[in-house]
Write a structure and sequence with these properties.
Layout (H helix, E strand, L loop, with lengths): L16 E11 L2 E11 L5 E9 L3 E7 L3 E4 L4 E4 L2 E4 L2 E7 L4 E9 L25 E18 L2 E4 L4 E9 L6 E6 L7 E12 L2 E12 L2 E6 L5 E8 L2 E8 L2 E8 L4 E7 L2 E20 L2 E16 L8
Antiparallel strand pairs: 1-2, 1-12, 2-3, 3-4, 5-6, 6-7, 7-8, 8-9, 9-10, 10-11, 10-12, 13-14, 13-22, 14-15, 15-16, 17-18, 18-19, 19-21, 20-21, 21-22
GO molecular function, one term: tocopherol cyclase activity
Pfam families: Tocopherol_cycl
Protein name: Tocopherol cyclase
Length: 314
């Protein structure tokens, strides 16, 4: 069985595989995300990496594979002098363009709900061993404390909010949309959305996973719960995605931004370029049987858009 609840998966793969974690930190109009991971191409050549993205820039730090160590029990990964865990991070990254040092501590992590049918955000697809890309959410939101020195400027993230997800497999989907934020007018709101073209048994289907948490309440739209995208419309710099699941309807109106270039996996190798904005704004409207349950605005959101999802022209 493949399960997204494990912290580490790549140790049994020798070629054509990747694994990466996404540690995001928000405070006010500032966003700082770190993506540690490992890449193994089709020839078995491997290297570790740390990608850094902020509202202003993105950088890729390359490391020999042997500098990456993972402790499954402690749920932490170290790459060089950098440590990433569910308790916090320690950063020591230096290049000609960017120097970052410091440490952050996490508290009050917020997991998603689990069941036997849906042991992870991927639902029953978690049990399959042949998916192109697996996804896991480790914390929808948590509090931050500590500081980072960013090119000599001290950044105090006390009172900020964090988010942790992860991906592993062979390649990112050929076409997908991804949006995430836990900075809303409603301080108890946290949001994640992803839709992608999913290769499956010689065919392809449009897969949907979306979670809106408001305090202890979780609304989840997913293909495995009968959730569907009913429309995608582009109007200038806005992308509207409409979802329906039973008696629930969700509208996501995204202010699209081109973002910064990131390296993404294709058959394990980090040779594909995508673009991520770390400072997008979007609006959510959640309805039940046509009656408004929530209207809110997410800010400093992560946003990626690659290709066109099957069945839609926008």
């Amino acid at each position: 069985m493949i399960t997204t609840n494990r912290f580490f998966h790549v140790n049994k793969r020798s070629r054509g595989f990747f694994e990466g974690w996404y540690f995001k930190h928000q405070i006010g109009s500032q966003v700082y995300a770190f993506i540690p991971g490992i890449s193994i191409d089709d020839k078995g050549e491997k290297h570790a990496f740390i990608q850094v993205i902020s509202q202003d820039t993105a950088h890729y730090f390359h490391f020999p594979a042997e500098e990456m160590k993972v402790d499954e029990v402690a749920q932490q990964v170290t790459i060089g002098d950098n440590l990433f865990s569910l308790r916090g991070i320690k950063i020591a990254l230096h290049s000609a363009e960017l120097s970052i040092e410091g440490s952050l501590t996490y508290d009050h992590l917020t997991p998603i709900k689990h069941s036997t049918y849906a042991p992870s955000v991927m639902g029953p697809f978690s049990y399959l061993s042949f998916m192109e890309c697996y996804h896991g959410i480790l914390s929808m939101g948590h509090t931050l404390s500590g500081t980072l020195s960013w090119n000599g400027e001290v950044l105090a993230l006390e009172g900020g909010k964090g988010y942790i997800e992860k991906d592993w497999g062979t390649s990112f989907p050929a076409a997908y949309i991804w949006v995430q934020s836990n900075l809303f007018d409603n301080a108890d709101a946290r949001f994640f959305f992803s839709a992608a073209d999913i290769p499956f048994l010689g065919s392809t289907f449009l897969g949907l996973i979306c979670i809106l948490q408001i305090g202890d309440k979780e609304y989840r739209f997913a293909t495995y719960y009968g959730g569907k995208i009913t429309d995608i419309v582009r109007e200038e710099d806005r992308l509207t995605v409409l979802l329906r699941q039973k008696d629930l309807q969700l509208a996501i109106i995204i202010e699209t931004m081109e973002g910064h270039p990131l390296q993404a996996p294709s058959r394990g190798a980090m040779g594909r370029i995508i673009r991520e904005s770390a400072s997008t704004t979007f609006q959510l409207t959640l309805k039940q049987n046509g009656q408004d349950l929530l209207t809110d605005r997410g800010t400093m959101a992560g946003f990626e858009e690659v290709g066109n999802l099957r069945g839609f022209r926008y």
